[in-house]
Design the sequence.
């Protein structure tokens, strides 16, 4: 074994034990029944039940809405931060990352406390003589929780790409007569597209598989697909059906990532032309 093989062996071993083996077990459970017999009934049960399909559609819709909101909020925020001094950028990025050092459940519980009928949000609205918001245990609360938890994952990659832009390219666009809006659409955004794609991926993937946010902020009546998977493993003890749902989500995620990759390549080709 050469030096590269020796260095990479621990990583390969780690990947096999903690990635490939668990995926293999999930796939095995998904195509077997409780007795270990080969079957596709687990997949058929999911696609033939309107309740599970509605949960999947709800998960996809809320995840896409959350991702779009994170993009619309995160891109301007990353752009504004990139225009500040290096020290100010470091401080703001630290403040942005600081809540992520807390436990995910704690952050979600904090959002639960904020959105309560007598919580800080409604207290502030009452103080300025505005009507209270009854948003807790609704789809809006789930989306708000996703945006709150995953927004940093959108801002960080976009900010990283924007700060690396060559200023001479922007100056050349201005010299050629491009106004700020056209310069953004024709130069800045295409060059920052890799960061945008990374941010979309980093937000959408955890959003579609989340279960803590929907359970705490959405209540028992607004289950997402992550809640169904957790229920199958922890409550119903039906690992076979839970694994089948997990495989379906994995396939959806892979298709999503492939579509993003194809879109990014198409834009890169268009930019070169």
Sequence:
């Amino acid at each position: 074994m050469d030096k590269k093989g020796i260095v990479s062996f621990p990583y390969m071993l780690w990947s096999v034990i903690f990635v490939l083996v668990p995926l293999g077990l999930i796939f095995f459970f998904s195509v077997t029944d409780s007795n270990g017999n080969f079957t596709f009934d687990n997949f058929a049960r999911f696609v033939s039940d309107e309740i599970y399909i509605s949960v999947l559609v709800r998960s996809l819709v809320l995840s896409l809405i959350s991702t779009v909101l994170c993009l619309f909020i995160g891109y301007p925020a990353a752009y504004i931060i990139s225009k500040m001094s290096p020290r100010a950028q470091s401080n703001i990025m630290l403040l942005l990352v600081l809540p992520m050092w807390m436990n995910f459940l704690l952050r979600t519980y904090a959002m639960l406390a904020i959105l309560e009928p007598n919580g800080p949000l409604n207290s502030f609205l009452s103080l300025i003589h505005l009507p209270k918001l009854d948003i807790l245990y609704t789809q809006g609360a789930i989306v708000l929780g996703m945006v709150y938890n995953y927004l940093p994952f959108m801002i960080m990659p976009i900010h990283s790409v924007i700060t690396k832009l060559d200023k001479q390219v922007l100056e050349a666009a201005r010299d050629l007569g491009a106004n700020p809006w056209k310069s953004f659409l024709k130069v800045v955004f295409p060059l920052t597209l890799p960061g945008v794609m990374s941010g979309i991926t980093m937000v959408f993937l955890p959003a579609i598989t989340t279960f803590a946010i929907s359970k705490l902020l959405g209540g028992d009546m607004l289950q997402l697909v992550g809640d169904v998977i957790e229920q199958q493993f922890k409550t119903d003890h039906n690992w076979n059906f839970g694994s089948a749902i997990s495989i379906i989500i994995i396939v959806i995620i892979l298709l999503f990532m492939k579509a993003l990759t194809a879109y990014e390549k198409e834009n890169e080709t268009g930019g070169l032309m």
Remarks:
- The longest helix spans residues 239-272.
- The chain has a mean pLDDT of 88.
